[in-house]
Amino acid sequence: MIRVRFAPSPTGALHIGGARTALFNWLFARHHGGKFILRIEDTDRERSTQESNQAIFRGLDWLGIDWDEGPNNGGPFGPYFQTERLAIYHDYAQKLIAAGQAYHCFCTPEELAVKRAAAEARKEPPRYDNSCRRLAPEEVQQRLARGDKHVIRFMLPAAGESIVEDLIRGRVVFKNEVLDDFVLVKSDGFPTYNFACVLDDHLMEISHVIRGDDHLSNTPRQILLYQAFGWGLPRFAHIPMILGKDRARLSKRHGATSVIAYNDIGYLPDAMINYIAKLGWGHGDQELFSRQELIESFSLEGVTKNPAIFDLDKLNWLNGQYIRNILPERLVDLCEPLVVAKYGRQDFTYLSRVIRLFQDRLVLIPDIVNLCGYFFEKVTAYDPKGAEKYFKKDNAKAILSALGQRLGQLDPFVKEHIEAVFKELAKEMNLKLGEVIHPCRLAISGRTETPPMYDVVELLGKEQVSARIQSALAYL
C-alpha cells in the first residue's frame, strides 16, 4: 500500500513550504488510494511547543488536509509524537552498537570545537575525527559506569557511495568519504533527526518519502542507516524549493508568515490549496482545479526540478476567481461580520444584496468593507480626479439636473426602467451613454468605479439617489 507522511517539527506555525509538502503527500496518497500519516517530530525540546502543535493542526484543518493516522486519529503504528517513541530509538541504537555499527562518543563540545578549528586551519571539511571509535571496550564501560556525558555515533563505512534514486531528480550520487560519523542519539538521550526519521519511516511502513529538496543532503546518511539495519529503502522524492519573485528564499517579506494568516487576510482555503499545488507542479496549461481534479491529476512526474516562485499577484488573481465561483450565500456569510463591524447592524436583505453586487470585484474577502461604504454612509467627498473630469464639464449640471428629475419621478424604481431613463436622456442630449453614467456614478457614490450603474441606482433607492444628486448639484 502507498503510505506517505508529513512530519513537521512543532517549532512554529505551518508555513507555505510545509503546507506544500503536506499537500503533495496528501494528493499522492489520495490519488493512489493510500494512507496519509501525520507525525510530529518534536524532539527539539528547546523550540518545540504545544502552541506550535495546535497551529499546525489548525493550518491543516483550514486547508482541508486530513490525515488517516496521527495525532487525534491514532492508528496501528503510533505513537505519532516522537517524544513518545524514545524507548524505540534507544532500543535500536543499542542494536547498532551490539552489531559494531555505532559507538559511544565522549568528546565534549569544547573538544569538538577545537577539532573543527584545526580542520578548518588545514583547509579540510570540519568532520569528526573518529577518535572515540578507537576507545577500548573496557574504557567505554568504565566511562559509562562513571556517568560521563556522551552521544551515540554511527560508524560510517570508510569508502563507497550512497546512491539516491530520486523520483524527481533522478540518480544522485554521494561519496561516503565526505561524510563523518554522525550522531544518532544526543547527550540528552533524544535522537537526531536522521536517526528518528529512518526508524519511524521504516516502522510506520512509509512507502514514499516526499519532502523538500533541502533534505536531499540528509538522504545518504539515512540510506546508510537503512542498509545497516538490513531494511529496504522507501522511494524518495525531493520537491523543489519555493523562492520569492526576487529569487531569494521565501521569507515573511514575500507574504504572510503562516498559512493560517492567509485566512485572516481574506483568502479562501480552496484558492490556497489550488495555488500551493501549482508551486512546483503542473498539469498541462490548466490553472484552476477543484480538489477532486487535483487528486485525479496529481503525479510526481508533474513536479518540476526547478525552484517554484511564490507570486502574490498570481495568488490574488486565483483567490478572486474562487470568490466569483462560490455560492452567493457563502459570500454573504463571510462578508457580513466585516460589514457589520464597520457600518453597524443593517437590514439583512439589503446587506445581502449589497455584498452580492461585489462578488465579481473582490480579490480578498475584507475588500468588501472599503468597496461598499457608500451603500451605508452618506457621500461626503468626491474622487478628486473624477470631479475634475466629470463635474467640471459645461453640461455636467444639466445632465445631473435632468437625471435627478426623471429618476425622482420614476415608478416603479426598478433596473429596467432606470436603464431606460439613462438611455433616453443620452439620446435626447445627443451624448454617449457613458457621459450620463459617469457623473451620476460620482454623484451617488463619490467614486469613479462601482458595480453596474443601474444595479447601484436600484439598490440605493429613489430617495437616496435623488438626495445624492441634489448634493452633487450643490457641490457644482
TrEMBL record:
The keyword Cytoplasm applies. It is found in: Cytoplasm. One of its GO terms (biological process) is glutamyl-tRNA aminoacylation. It comes from the Bacteria. ATP binds at residue 252. Keywords: Aminoacyl-tRNA synthetase, ATP-binding, Cytoplasm, Ligase, Nucleotide-binding, Protein biosynthesis. It comes from candidate division WOR-1 bacterium RIFOXYB2_FULL_48_7. Catalyzes the attachment of glutamate to tRNA(Glu) in a two-step reaction: glutamate is first activated by ATP to form Glu-AMP and then transferred to the acceptor end of tRNA(Glu). Monomer. Residues 331-473 form the Aminoacyl-tRNA synthetase class I anticodon-binding domain. Belongs to the class-I aminoacyl-tRNA synthetase family. Glutamate--tRNA ligase type 1 subfamily. Residues 2-317 form the Glutamyl/glutaminyl-tRNA synthetase class Ib catalytic domain. One of its GO terms (molecular function) is tRNA binding. The gene is gltX. Its EC number is 6.1.1.17. This is Glutamate--tRNA ligase. It is an enzyme of class 6 (ligase). A motif ('HIGH' region) lies at residues 8-18. GO terms for cellular component: cytosol. A motif ('KMSKS' region) lies at residues 249-253. It catalyses: tRNA(Glu) + L-glutamate + ATP = L-glutamyl-tRNA(Glu) + AMP + diphosphate. Its main location: cytoplasm.
